[in-house]
Specification:
It is a single chain. The protein contains six helices and seven strands; from the N terminus they run βαββααβαββαβα. The chain is α/β, with parallel strands linked by helices and 164 residues long. The N and C termini lie close together (9 Å). β4, α4 and β5 form a beta-alpha-beta unit. The strands form two sheets. It has a five-stranded parallel beta sheet with strand order 2-1-3-4-5, covered by helices on one side.
């Protein structure tokens, strides 16, 4: 299958998670293109989609949201999986409110959605971002669990195999 993995990223963590997902899908024999949502102009050649975004201020990035709006028709007629990255410092990457990005996810009706813990490296953030993160109780460090990313990717591979 030809799959588009479209993920926005501000500081690289979501790009890195997306790259792991894309590689796992390629390892399973799928043809995967990885792109930033704002760079995608046509999705007609794809059989499935994996969409990702970091979560800032309880929202996906505007670029990811815009992608879901621009390609709504195609996303509704193909299988879609979604992932979020962020909320570092919460126990084992669990989110306190799973409906934070609910409106976006409801609009695309994904086959599945997962939130992966991200990383918080204050030196990469603006003063505003650092202040917000600190007020929210974020702990400094890299909380990404790439084994969990690979396991979720394997579930996509299984779901795609079941469709064929």
């Amino acid at each position: 299958m030809k799959i588009l993995l479209a993920a926005s990223s501000r500081h690289g963590a979501t790009d890195e998670v997306g790259a792991v997902i894309a590689q796992e899908l390629r390892n399973a024999g799928h043809d995967v293109d990885q792109a930033r949502p704002e760079d995608v102009t046509d999705v007609r050649t794809y059989d499935a989609f994996v969409l990702g975004s970091p979560v800032y201020m309880t929202r996906w990035t505007q670029e990811a949201i815009d992608f879901t709006e621009r390609f709504s028709e195609e996303l509704h007629s193909h299988p879609v999986w979604a992932f979020s990255v962020g909320l570092s410092g919460l126990p084992k990457g669990k989110i306190s409110d799973p409906h934070r990005i609910g409106p976006v996810l409801l609009s695309i009706e994904p086959e599945g959605h997962v939130t992966f813990a991200g990383r918080f490296e204050p030196s990469e953030l603006s003063l505003r971002e650092r202040s917000i993160a600190r007020m929210g109780g974020a702990s400094e460090g890299d909380f990404r669990d790439l084994d969990a990313v690979r396991a979720w990717s394997a579930s996509i591979v299984e779901a795609l195999a079941a469709r064929q």
